[in-house]
Amino acid sequence: MTITKRLLGTHMSIAGGLYKAFSRGEEAGCTAMQIFTKNQSQWAAKPIDSESIEKFHSGRERTGIATIAHAAYLPNLASPDNVLWQKSFDAMLIEMERCDLLNIPNLIFHPGSCKSDTRENGVRRVGESLRKLYDAAKFDVALTIENTAGTGSNLGYRFEEIAEIIAISGIPGRLKVCFDTCHAFAAGYDIRTKESYLDVWRRFDETIGIEKLAAIHLNDSKHELGSRKDRHEHIGEGFIGLEGFRNIMNDPKLAHLPMVLETPKGLKTRDGSDIAMDKVNLKRLRDLIEN
Q: What's the confidence (pLDDT) of residue 3?
């Protein structure tokens, strides 16, 4: 796949309207992008009206930018608190409904935190919750589990936990996985050398299955391997370094996947866009691709 056809981009703001993410993505040079479909810091969401849906579809058709969504950070399907769990479940239903209205194929989400409960119980709650979400209504969007850095009681930093969540759900065909480079590195998965990089994907394939991989988050890490700290850094400026991203950008088995940055943003432009450092990071990644 040529450089220009690679699905590469960044997380884009939806300030002022969902459809505005496309013009911002176009300005930044995206061929793929990730968005929130609602305010990520609030539980409630105003329904998407027909005009907004039409504008969103038109923007995607005009630009050709492949789009994935990230769920808000508030829901916690692993929570042992029944009130919070129900609130989280209802919020995820809304997120899934919005993705289907916008024809977004993947909704990326964090498995959640088991808090004071055991990891085993947390994993079970997440797996059972995913099945219940698909039982609640007919959805097309694929819930896409993101690996985590393993901070505190957060689940999903080990491939084995993700695989167990998928198995417990009983609906493996509906679920996908997003691989975050910073999170993986913080969790102890070393992608810096060719040998260690290949070993990480061998372990992923044996534990989860490479066919489950639907998207990649490209983030360098402010902290060292195995730190369990989730702090993103600009490409090539963290402990992963350019060679780790060179491995990813030249891996033929990943070339078809949407890859998006979640690196720190630059100064805001007048319309609320954050594109300054996105352009820099995207150029660094494209420069690593060997034709």
A: 54
Q: Is the pTM of this model over 0.90?
A: yes
* Interacting residues of 156 by C-beta distance below 8 A, sequence separation 6+: 110, 111, 145, 146, 147, 148, 162, 165
pLDDT for residue 1: 53
Q: Is 172 helix (H, G, I), strand (E, B) or coil?
A: helix
pLDDT digits (tens, 9 = 90+) for 30-75: 999 999 999 998 998 999 999 999 999 999 999 999 999 999 999 9
Is the Cα dihedral 265, 65, 89, 119 positive or negative? negative
Kindly report the number of other CB atoms within 10 A of residue 154's CB atom: 22
Which phi and psi angles does 144 have, rounded to 5°?
A: -120, 110
Domains, the chain, ordered by start? 34-247 (3.20.20.150)
Q: Helix crossing, 50-63 with 20-28: angle to 10°?
A: 20
**Alpha-carbon distance 217 to 31, whole Å?**
14
Tell me the C-alpha distance between 109 and 281, whole Å.
24
Look up residue 116 and give its two tokens: 């004071």
Q: Are 13 and 23 in contact (CB under 8 A)?
A: no
The label of the residue with tokens 């993103």 reads 232
